[in-house]
Amino acid sequence: MSAIYTKRLTKELRDLNKNPPEGVVVEEAENLKKWKVRLTGAPGTIYEGEEFKLEFRFTTQYPLEAPDVVFIKPYIPVHPQRTQLLPYWSPVQTVAHICLSIISMISSCTKKELPPDNDIYIRSASASPKKTAWAFQ
User: Fold this and answer.
1) Which domain of life is it from (predicted)?
2) Choosing a second label site near 47 at 20 to 30 A (CA), which of 4, 15, 79, 82?
């Protein structure tokens, strides 16, 4: 394993457990390759108090390469937007940054609805969001 990968994820895990951002709890991180994180909907939003779960999958190229981040069923928000980190990834980002970005994205929603192409996407999507061809408008 890469020394950078090990040092960085060990520090991030320690920081998240010691001083987590509001609404973020690491539920499982038995190894550095896969973590499960629980997010709680922000107060004053339509998702207030709802719980969502993410799975982070890291390669030994982290932090130079973005982790795969996917919601775990059934803890998936009913939300009109899908996003992908890869075009915006920078090694200065952390798991905490990703979690806060997702909470922010969820919080900005004013109507619980799925994307119009959700059923097609679910049937054809790869297990890795990085393998999805994204179109941005």
Assistant:
1) Eukaryota
2) 15
Contact yes or no for 93/79 (Cβ under 8 A): no
Number of structural domains (the chain) is 1
Residue 22 domain-assigned? yes
Indicate whether 46 belongs to any domain.
yes
Is 137 a member of any domain?
no
Q: Is the dihedral of CA 7, 9, 10, 14 positive or negative?
A: positive
Q: How many CB atoms lie within 10 A of CB 87?
A: 9
Percentages (nearest 5) of helix, strand, coil residues in the chain: 30, 15, 55
CATH number of the domain that residue 96 is part of: 3.10.110.10
Tokens of 82: 């899908």
How far is residue 45 from each of residues 37, 49, 105, measured CA to CA in Å? Answer: 20, 9, 11
User: Beta-strand (E) ranges in the chain?
Assistant: 24-28, 34-40, 51-57, 68-71
Residue numbers of the domain that contains 23: 3-131
Using pLDDT thresholds of 50, 70 and 90, give the confidence band for residue 105. confident
